[in-house]
Design goal:
Pfam families: ABC1
Strand content: 5-15%
Number of domains: 4
Oligomer: single chain
Active site: 288 (proton acceptor)
Membrane topology: Multi-pass membrane protein
Shape: globular
Helix content: 55-70%
Structural class: alpha+beta
Binding site for ATP: 131-139, 153
Transmembrane segments: 24-41, 515-532
Length: 534
């Protein structure tokens, strides 16, 4: 694996030299000791051929040559026009769906191998020229024998070895960083790379993408906010995906959106609402929402609807993480820095011995200047990043499960401000978060939690019985006598009957809710008594 990483490093170095990316680096305002380094680079000692390419084109071509992981990085950067010069951002946008395609005949061969049939047996029409091409796959337009217009997505050949090389190098860097730097250990770089490894390999499995698309479609069934194309499962395979062809306007085609009089303010606000709905309502969010994967329906431009494709990367959060994020955002935008500090400590992300007053003061020092600006000018992504940077000074450990969320949030915010520069992201998100918080503590939600706990009673009773048996019997591993097994079976049947009866009473509602707890409670008490008596 180390040899593989060295080979990949040499490949990266060759690409850097070919496109003279070191010129871009040394054009930045660097410390003098780094500027001196350029004279120690051997390839700068000799005359070189001038590249007739802009700096943005050189960067795009370099990322393109280096493969999927680097292309993904360029796609993320392309959405942050607030961080990049205009010429570089324009070039990186081409990485979203204009990566050079691979040979069409090879594409046809791969599709036929996966489907086990000739193209003509499955499709009444198949366009050999690809409709679009991206870092991991390319797409062809087609028509099924039954008449439906579809797109056929096929994985690029030979990706796994390249990805394995990049990941090997990333793991070496991550492990080295953890060994030499205490600050790096707080960031858990190995865990982050491991999560990314799982994500990128999952993206190579198109059956997983099809399942993700079906789930996302169910979550937004009938919604005016988002439409997800239908998956044709009969023709889906690990390296081939067939789904409904959609017709819409790419979300970054601002001229066409303006020509059809699209309500840009509503479009930007609905993008924010979709993100928070996925994260907090469904805990299932599209985590690759760069502009190449997002279109706008041409129907009802005064009430625009998004269309999402490419669901290869999705993320989810635990209820604890959801609650933590929502409470932090509320406290932060109310400038309740003490509450923000307390939430970090309570969540265990910051050591319990952290001094609350000092942590609160540090957060205030970093964040207070932000609120001197109007809310519409506050970058949500920068707020989270600054918050985490401050917490790291107090030994906060980065949570790898939030990496996809931060990446998606940066994409959404960059896109929203591009569509509607006056977007007030907080005022757009606040009503949704407030409603979600109210629903979390509503009687219906509390009753659901109680019922969920109630369903665990038989399991808890068994655990309690087993624990007491181990404590009271020195030969707990010996097989029990037949009469013990019979008594245990009787007890479990009785307890199961009580559980079913209790569940029925609880589901009945009304005054029976209180009665529903008694049968199971009595049975558990009887069970514990029998165990102790034994």
């Amino acid at each position: 694996m180390k040899l593989l990483a060295v080979r990949r490093l040499l490949r990266i170095q060759r690409v850097v030299i070919r496109y003279r990316l070191d010129d871009l680096l040394f054009a930045l305002p660097l410390p003098w000791f780094l500027l001196v380094l350029r004279y120690a680079l051997p390839w700068r000692w000799f005359p070189r051929k001038t590249l007739d390419l802009s700096r943005g084109a050189r960067l795009r071509l370099a990322l393109q040559d280096l493969g999927p992981i680097f292309i993904k990085f360029g796609q993320i950067l392309s959405t942050r026009r607030d961080l990049l010069p205009e010429d570089i951002a324009d070039e990186l946008m081409k990485l979203q769906d204009r990566v050079p395609p691979f040979d069409s005949q090879l594409s046809v061969k791969l599709i036929e191998e996966q489907l086990g049939k000739k193209i003509s047996e499955v499709f009444s029409r198949f366009d050999v020229e690809p409709l679009a091409s991206a870092s991991v796959a390319q797409v062809h337009a087609a028509q099924l024998k039954t008449g439906e217009e579809v797109v056929v997505k096929v994985i690029r050949p030979g990706l796994k070895p390249v990805i394995a090389q990049d990941l090997a190098w990333l793991f070496i860097l991550a492990r080295a960083a953890e060994k030499v730097s205490a600050d790096a250990r707080l960031l858990h770089p190995v865990d982050v790379v491991s999560d990314y490894e799982k994500t990128i390999y999952d993206e190579l499995d198109l059956l997983r993408e099809a399942a993700n698309a079906s789930q996302l479609k169910r979550n937004f069934e009938g919604s005016p906010l988002l439409y997800v194309p239908q998956v044709y499962w009969d023709w889906c395979r690990p390296k081939v995906l067939v789904m409904e062809r959609i017709y819409g306007i790419q979300v970054t085609d601002l001229a066409t959106l303006a020509d059809q009089r699209t309500d840009m303010k509503m479009l930007a606000e609905r993008g924010v609402e979709i993100f928070f709905t996925q994260v907090f309502r469904d805990s299932f969010f599209h985590a690759d929402m760069h502009p190449g994967n997002i279109f706008v329906s041409t129907v009802n431009p005064w009430s625009p609807q998004y269309i999402a494709i490419d669901c290869g990367i999705v993320g989810s959060l635990t209820p604890e993480d959801q609650d933590y994020l929502a409470r932090n955002l509320f406290a932060f935008f109310k400038r309740d820095y003490r509450r923000v500090a307390q939430l970090h400590i309570d969540s265990g992300w910051v050591p319990a011995e952290t001094k609350l007053n000092e942590f609160e003061a540090a957060i205030r020092t970093v964040c207070e200047p932000i609120f001197e600006k109007p809310l519409k000018d506050i970058s949500f992504g920068q707020v989270l990043m600054r918050l985490f940077q401050t917490a790291r000074r107090f030994n906060m450990e980065v949570q790898p499960q939030l990496v996809l969320l931060q990446k998606t949030l940066l994409n959404i915010e960059g896109l929203g401000r591009q569509l509607y520069p006056e977007l007030d992201l907080w005022n757009t998100a606040q009503p949704f978060l407030e409603r979600w918080m109210r629903e979390r503590v509503s009687p219906k939600a509390l009753l659901g939690n109680v019922q969920s706990q109630f369903e665990q009673i038989p399991h808890l009773a068994n655990m309690a019985r087993d624990l007491l048996e181990r404590m009271s019997q020195p030969h707990a591993n010996d097989p029990p006598p037949p009469w013990h097994r019979a008594r245990d079976d009787w007890f479990l049947r009785l307890l199961g009957t009580a559980h079913l009866a209790g569940g029925a009473l609880l589901a009945a509602g009304g005054p029976l809710n209180q009665l529903a707890y008694w049968p199971a409670g009595i049975m558990m008490a009887v069970g514990l008594y029998l165990v102790v008596r034994r």
